[in-house]
Automatic annotation (TrEMBL):
Family listed: Belongs to the acetyltransferase family. RimJ subfamily.
Protein name as catalogued: GNAT family N-acetyltransferase
UniProt KW keywords: Acyltransferase, Transferase
Pfam family, one: Acetyltransf_3
PROSITE patterns attached to this UniProt entry: GNAT
Amino acid sequence: MLTRTNELLVRIEPWAEADLALLYRMNAPEMLEHLGGPETEEQILARHKRYVEIGGKGKGHMFSIVLLSELEAVGNIGYWERVWQEETVYEIGWGVLPTFQGRGIASAATAAAVASARAEQKNRYIHAFPSVDNPASNAICRKLDFKFNAECSFEYPPGSFMRCNDWRLDLTAAT
């Protein structure tokens, strides 16, 4: 799926075995400051396995974000099923390597992932839960017409709670 942003062409590609190197690059303190910090080797390998397998389970999709002008994977985006407030919804999350941030890449990739989730016609809502202290991710939600629900306590990583904003987008609404 291709999306143009600020004269950049961005493509999301299904997560593949070769994307493990990208996951290692993204496991940096500045990338994970709002998400509990870097992961161990074991956690990275388990995450990579989940990312590779999720599409085949019918529970969501993970993608690498490719900046076509440089033919380089510069981040990841994905959505997965979860139960939120007694309803099965998609949760969406993204990350872009620091040297590529601030160029609209995450917004373009998020729009493409939302379009993918919408095309599935499986779940009505997709939620994003950025930290209350992450202005860039909250701005993406506003830009893409997610509706702010409320601030909430969110468990991530498991065993640790953080303050997040609950943003929701109706995938059945006209675009």
